[in-house]
Specification:
This protein is about 75% helix and about 0% strand. By secondary structure, the chain is mainly alpha-helical. The chain has one domain.
Length: about 290
């Protein structure tokens, strides 16, 4: 999980650097296509079974995931100036969206505890974005189109997480990764052709590095979740905030303001509570002795 966070941070840092000269949609296509090429050999080496069961759900998941990739790259586009740490902090809303979507799409019962935690989490978003703007203070997230795209990206990936819950029973995790990157390449290609560019050799190296670290992040995340307890590993994802802050410091010599840390802290606490609550509710009760 820690290596996943490192890979994800390097992936975003390279993407942010490249989008200064290359359109995010063009970059999203090559990120997906190269990621598919990097992951394809795993089919042979790890004996991954690829099949088309529930293909409609695979397409839907990849289509929404593609939108999430594009929105994420647009969010960190230098045109909007959203730092990586702020993007990561806003991406922590993903578990909150997952809880809401599971309630509406999967008809999962969400009690007052988790509902309150979701509300508190979104208050954390307001603390990061609207509160500093309303009181005229610095130190909040850049409340602009970049932050809106970051939240939309989280919403899209929350959709994919909910869909994955219903797909892991029929597809291996790595098969889902390979399907996602292949289908995303197909979906994004028409839009990428409209903004096609001819990168330099140095930019191609950066694009390949971005795709490679993206695959590393995905693979390590899947591997970590497959061998460890999700309730223990999920909080490690929040290490992406200090990792992103470190990357921002090296790239733009800037650190997140107090409202970003405060808002992110509120979101982290609320999502940790949701994780703990789900762990408690899913705990297997000990068998009761038969009545005599």
């Amino acid at each position: 999980m820690i290596l996943s966070g490192v890979g994800y941070t390097l992936h975003l840092a390279l993407a942010k650097e490249i989008t200064a000269d290359i359109h995010p949609v063009f970059l999203a296509f090559w990120r997906s296509f190269l990621a598919f090429l990097f992951a394809a050999p795993l089919i042979w080496f790890l004996h991954v079974r690829i099949h088309t069961a529930r293909f409609g759900a695979l397409v839907t998941r990849s289509l929404i995931g593609s939108a999430g990739f594009v929105f994420g790259l647009i969010a960190i586009w230098p045109k909007f100036g959203l730092p990586l740490a702020e993007f990561n902090a806003l991406s922590f809303t993903r578990p909150l969206f997952v809880t809401l979507l599971a309630m509406f799409l999967l008809h999962e019962k969400v009690g007052v505890h988790r509902s309150t935690a979701v509300i508190v989490g979104f208050i954390g978003v307001l603390v990061m974005t609207l509160l500093p703007a309303l009181i005229g203070q610095e130190g909040g997230a850049h409340f602009n189109a970049g932050s809106v795209f970051a939240i939309l990206s989280s919403l899209c990936f929350a959709f994919t997480i909910v869909l994955v819950k219903s797909l892991t029973g029929v597809h291996q995790p790595l098969a889902l990764l390979i399907w996602a990157n292949l289908l995303s390449s197909i979906f994004i290609l028409p839009a990428a052709l409209a903004v096609w560019a001819v990168p330099s050799s140095g930019e191609w190296i950066q694009i390949a590095g971005m795709a490679f670290f993206g695959v590393v992040a995905q693979f390590c995340f899947i591997k970590g979740m497959s061998v460890g307890d999700a309730s223990f590993l999920s909080p490690m994802d929040y290490l992406r905030l200090p990792m992103g802050a470190t990357a921002d410091w090296f790239m733009i010599r800037a650190l997140p303001g107090i409202f970003v840390w405060a808002g992110a802290g509120i979101i982290v606490v609320s999502t940790l509570y949701i994780t703990w609550r789900e762990h408690v509710l899913n705990r297997v009760k000990p068998p009761q002795p038969p009545k005599i």
